[in-house]
């Protein structure tokens, strides 16, 4: 495990201390969980951005439409 040192605003450190005490959790564990959740959020936001970009790409739209046609045909064949 790596140790890091950082500076945070006093108000934020006070909130961190308050929540850590309320939840009976060490401050470093609270920071670890919060950072992990935030990084996951950033990853999802990047996916959303890439899908929105792909939604404006004519080649990607054509490819998706072709794939849907094949999928619908498979569904029709299975229901017969």
Characterization of the model:
- By secondary structure, the protein is mostly helical.
- It has one domain (18-78).
- Helices cover 80% and strands 0% of the residues.
- It has helices spanning 10-23, 27-55, 58-78.
- It holds the Pfam family RHH_3.
- One of its GO terms (biological process) is regulation of DNA-templated transcription.
- This is Ribbon-helix-helix protein.
- Residues 4-40 form the Predicted DNA-binding protein ribbon-helix-helix domain.
The overall strand count is 0
Distance between the terminal alpha carbons, to the nearest Å?
Answer: 58 Å
Task: Estimate percent helicity.
Answer: over 70%
Mean pLDDT: 89
| Helix-strand topology string | HHH
Q: Given the structure, what is the number of helices?
A: 3
Total domain units: 1
Protein name: Ribbon-helix-helix protein
GO biological process, one term: regulation of DNA-templated transcription
Domain Predicted DNA-binding protein ribbon-helix-helix: 4-40
InterPro entries: Arc_rbn_hlx_hlx (IPR013321), Predicted_DNA_bind_prot_RHH (IPR038733), Ribbon_hlx_hlx (IPR010985)
Keywords:
mainly alpha, 80 residues, single chain, 3 helices, 80% helix
Gist of the model:
The protein contains three helices and no strands. With 80 residues, the chain is mainly α.
């Amino acid at each position: 495990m790596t140790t890091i040192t950082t500076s945070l605003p006093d108000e934020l450190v006070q909130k961190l201390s308050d929540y850590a005490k309320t939840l009976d959790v060490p401050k470093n564990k609270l920071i670890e969980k919060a950072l992990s959740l935030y990084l996951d959020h950033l990853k999802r936001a990047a996916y959303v951005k890439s899908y929105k970009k792909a939604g404006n790409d004519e080649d990607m739209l054509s490819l998706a439409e072709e794939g849907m046609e094949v999928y619908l045909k498979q569904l029709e064949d299975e229901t017969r």
